[in-house]
Amino acid sequence: MAPSAPGFLSGGGLLAAAEDVEFAQPVSHDVTLNIPPVFKCNPFDHTLVVNLEGPGGEARRNHILREFGKKGLRGRFKFWPAVNFGTDEQLAQETGMKKCPCDAKKGCALSHRRIYETMLAEQWACATIFEDDVTLAENFTSRIESAIDSIPPFDVILWGFCPGGAKPRHGPKDQSSVPILRYGWPGSCVHAYTVSLQGALMLTQANTPVQTPPDGAMDGMHWFRDRTMLHIDRSGGVITGSYWFATPQLSWQGVEADNLDGGV
């Protein structure tokens, strides 16, 4: 065998320099083999309806109280204070205005983002978010509960959506099936959706400072400005997260509720 080169151990190819090197040390005590808890999502553990506080949001609050009372959600949700796009100082700052009134859609986005930020602070596994003009399918709650054990890993699950950007004004004929979750981003609107903790992080990063409506933060076609976050793929139509949607749809925005005062 040929002699090893200076500074190397024969056969091992390992440096044999004289200077000391630092080695990490194994722990000197017993190790408890417990992994961190798994975040299991129950969509109804944290259920929130975005609504304008005070008299301005009263008509839509009453709509939600009636609608959710009929669909199995009485006492299982809370109202979330909507950003007032006419006066909110943070909205003005993030959108480069001296003061509001500001863009109403960006105000809506900030309302949703504040929920995501709360999820991150409180470590909620997931939250289900509604807008206050939503109408729910028959047996909405029980149909989702029947699907909980088959929910895949996700960022967002849309229980309702707007194909091609058009708001469905009536529910599907099928008002009884347990929904099937399909992968992809089916269209705009966020009147009823569940977001995971990981999804909350992604959507917060993607829309800070606020620059697009909440559904725009999910749609690759909106990511064309140089100021957008670098981790978002700006190619047209690219799905930027793990999005799933329910078929048949379980929610929509009816004309009567959508026309009520207090929309944000």
Tell me what the structure shows.
This protein is an alpha/beta fold and 264 residues long. It has a single domain (47-258), classed as Spore Coat Polysaccharide Biosynthesis Protein SpsA, Chain A (Alpha-Beta Complex), CATH 3.90.550. Helices cover 23% and strands 14% of the residues. The chain is built from six helices and nine strands. It has helices at 58-70, 89-94, 104-122, 140-147, 197-206, 255-258, and strands at 47-51, 78-81, 126-131, 135-136, 156-158, 180-183, 192-196, 243-247, 251-252. It has a seven-stranded mixed sheet with strand order 2-1-3-7-5-8-6, with helices on both faces. Strand 1 (47-51), helix 1 (58-70) and strand 2 (78-81) form a beta-alpha-beta unit. Helix 3 (104-122) packs across helix 5 (197-206). The longest helix is centred in the middle third of the chain and has 19 residues, at 104-122. The protein is globular, with a radius of gyration of 25 Å. The N and C termini lie far apart (81 Å). Mean pLDDT is 82; it is low at 4-11 and 222-231. This is Glycosyl transferase family 25 domain-containing protein. Residues 46-157 form the Glycosyl transferase family domain.
